[in-house]
Amino acid sequence: MNINHMKAFLEVAKSGGFQLAADRLHVTQSTVSARIKVLETQLGRPLFVRKREGTELTVAGRHFHRFAHAAVRAWEQARQEVALPEALNAVVTLGVQMNHWERIAPAWVEQMQATAPHVGTRVVADYSENLLADLSDGLIDLAMTYIPRQQPGLSCELLMEDTLVLASTTPRKVSKQWQPDYVFVDWGAEFRAAHNLAYPETRAPRLSVGLSMIGLDYVLKHGGSGYFSERTIEPLLKEGRLHLIEKAPTFQRPVYLLHPKEPLDLELLTLAKGILKEVAAQDMDKSGRQG
Q1: What pLDDT sits at residue 287?
Q2: Distance, CA of 173 to chain centre
């Protein structure tokens, strides 16, 4: 199948119309229509229901969507890696769970560049489910996630563990009642379940965020409380900008390292994995000394 045909399919699915897709792809509407027609002929199924107000994916179209998305992403990555400059002989891609971007990714990149200057490095920050999908599709080489996915072909091990603590901009004791200034940081399904057990009487918070740094920035600017990584906020606790809430329950948030059991380049993966473990250990050791 032609990559441009799949790009046209994805754009029509995204925009909901052939003309909008054509405008975004900088081609004519007839070109988009022709590309979709070729795909439908090859697959033997209609991919869209054409309506006056726009288009909708058929059942076959919905099934095809994820394959087209993976194929286009794989093609874009392959084009980047195959067209490496002469100074580079390989590329390794690390997927990082978004809450660990600032603490882990820069140090890993620096050590990779220093240790293997002829290897290109690429970092993708996303949520755990998306990283696992990219890993399964071969779009990244190794991933840090909150999910210990056990499946054939993937190796999974514990990389590090965070302690999540409840901190506030004002000193106080824990309360099981609803707090109007509480910011809910979503650390994943396991955290949500444990949080509900610890605080069964609380109502929905006024603000929920999926990225801890956004929640922390808001709390520091406007006041309030939330659950954050103890290592991350240690300097803020020492400065008195944040205070641990007395008698508040803490939660453990393990981080797992996943990669293919049979990678394309075992030597490169071993190097990238080793440096990632060193960076994680240094991060934990640094926070231990600070404590």
Answers
A1: 55
A2: 34
Q: Tens digit of pLDDT for each residue in 197-217?
A: 998 877 778 899 988 999 999
Helix axes 59-82, 29-43, angle to 10 degrees: 110
Strands 154-168 and 225-229, bridge-based pairing? antiparallel
Regarding beta strands 251-260 and 142-145, do their DSSP bridges make them parallel or antiparallel, or are they unpaired?
antiparallel
- What fold is seen in the domain 88-161+254-290? D-Maltodextrin-Binding Protein; domain 2 (3.40.190)
Residue 141: exposed, middle, or buried by beta-carbon count in 10 A (0-12, 13-18, 19+)?
buried
Instruction: Decide if 106 contacts 276 (C-beta within 8 A).
Output: no
- What CATH number has the domain spanning 162-253? 3.40.190.10
**Within the chain, where are the H helices?**
3-15, 18-25, 29-43, 59-82, 101-115, 128-136, 189-198, 212-222, 230-239, 266-290
Domain parsing of the chain, residue ranges = 3-81, 88-161+254-290, 162-253
**What residues contact 29, with CB distance under 8 A and at least 6 apart?**
18, 19, 22
